[in-house]
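Lecture 7 notes: from sequence to structure.
We start with the chain below.
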Amino acid sequence: MVAAETAVRGTVAEPGGVLVDTADVPGGGQLHLLRHGSHFEIMFGNEQLMGSWSYRSEQALATLALGGLGGQPQVLIGGLGMGFTLAAARASLPAGARIIVAELVPQIVTWAAGHLRHLFGGSLDDPRVSVEVRDVHDLIVEQPAGFDAILLDVDNGPDGLISLANERLYSNWGLRVVRSALRPSGVLAIWSALSGSQLHLSPEGVRLRRRGGQHRHRQQRGQSGPYDLARHG
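Predicted structure tokens for the same chain:
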């Protein structure tokens, strides 16, 4: 039986799921794509990374961060997942926007065009969207002052890493790199699996705020997935 909309990341899979495919994670480990009736979930061992029945916080990651962006903004999304953040970004952004999605695991991109295509709708065909099979950290480093918004939904956020290499995104020096990649008034939004995320308490987060940046920590009601919003002032 599939869990309700309030199901959270980080729970053990419901029994009876059908294994559809597997994907090797660069650096080690394997993802499993499971089907539960009409729903899908992606697992890393016994850790649930995402399920198609639970998506409101992924949508909110984009809608809260991108509302009001006009002109021709350039947005970077770290993590393709099941496409819910991407779809919300498309709905929130103007026709002149450019949306770059960085996905580390090649097979997730293959699933998006295959097993999970019904979840993506027309997202992959949107001319504003490009998907790069790369580490989002590398894209951030390569484009100083290149983005009006950076949305990170990598692993389970700063408190739920499945890959220690991703810690560099959320460390103090990692946040400094992200800050340098944002344009003036640019926005950083981060999805976190745990409401106790310490990201907003880090010394670099405090410095961002003191230097004119704005910071908010929100909890999506009825789901896991609080998200942090920081604006580069």
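Points to note: The first helix runs from residue 56 to 66. Residues 42 and 232 are 33 Å apart (CA to CA).
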